[in-house]
Design brief:
290 residues; single chain
Length: 290
């Protein structure tokens, strides 16, 4: 896969992830139940493709990659659990801001782990992007003194960084096999948590099923296939910067499709995200290649 295609797949997956809040708003289930069905249906979708293509033997061929991707999938499952717990305790605004620290960690560690050169221009552009995220989510801040909720938000960021770092260590596993292991490991992690919490007792309304299937198969299975096929080909710094287009997509779609109000600070926030990403990837990329 060439670099341009990897960027395209990554951006497409990020935009698809940004649609998840719109889809989930039509599902009358708890957050943990939605996560469970996302991972279950996404895994089933990819297992079907692997069976049809007869690619199961690839997993045996690269045991080291298999270990890294399994750890990455477990980190993803834990990250989602912490994030949704933070949503419930401290609200979407603070939880999203804390979760946004995950890409900061990835970018900060990229020179040490991936030997990537961190330029002043990219650092400045990243700061502008992060400021944009703060402006977008800052209108919904409601702390309430719940320190466990804050801790959950921070832990979701740390485990996000672990997910990206561990997955980028898997160099030989194909995107399909990589994503399948990732989702299965995440599913096992979430199922373990649900078993401890006795959270398997749920009832699904018939009107929820079309949205659940779309969220699980398309917005999780297919989108994760694009995402994990791309990140091993991209610099960690690019993953960090461009990943912030996800909340931007969610912001505009929620305003367009759900009629949610756009606040005054959110408009410059969106400009900062787009402008910072452009400077980091287009201008910064040209300087590195020149």
């Amino acid at each position: 896969m060439n670099l341009r295609r990897a960027y395209f797949l990554y951006l497409l997956s990020v935009i698809m992830f940004g649609c998840n809040g719109i889809i989930a708003s039509h599902i009358a289930q708890s957050s943990i139940t939605i996560v469970f069905f996302r991972l279950s249906l996404g895994s089933l979708f990819l297992l079907t493709i692997i069976f049809l293509r007869r690619q199961g033997r690839e997993l045996i061929r690269y045991p080291k990659d298999l270990l890294y991707v399994t750890l990455s999938g477990m980190a993803m499952g834990v990250s989602w659990l912490f994030l949704y717990e933070a949503f419930d305790r401290v609200g979407v605004g603070i939880a999203s801001l804390l979760y946004a620290c995950g890409p900061v960690l990835v970018m900060a560690l990229s020179p040490l782990i991936f030997k990537e050169h961190l330029t002043r221009l990219k650092c400045s552009a990243f700061a502008v992007v992060f400021l944009g995220v703060c402006l977008i989510n800052g209108t919904e801040l409601n702390f309430g003194g719940d320190w466990w909720g804050v801790a959950c938000g921070l832990l979701s960021a740390v485990t996000y960084a672990l997910m990206v770092i561990a997955n980028k260590q898997a160099k030989d596993l194909s995107g399909l096999a990589n994503t399948q292991v990732q989702l299965l490991a995440g599913l096992v992690t979430v199922c373990t948590f649900m078993a401890v919490r006795s959270a398997f007792d749920f009832s699904i309304a018939p009107s929820d099923w079309p949205w659940i299937f779309f969220l699980g198969v398309i917005s999780t299975g297919f989108a994760c296939l694009l995402y994990f096929s791309a990140i091993n080909r991209l610099p960690a710094q690019s993953i960090a910067v461009l990943g912030y287009l996800e909340p931007l997509t969610a912001l505009f779609l929620s305003a367009l499709l759900l009629g949610e109000k756009l606040y005054a600070l959110q408009i410059p926030g969106a400009v900062f995200i787009l402008g910072g990403a452009f400077v980091a990837e287009v201008i910064g990329g040209r300087r590195q290649t020149s």
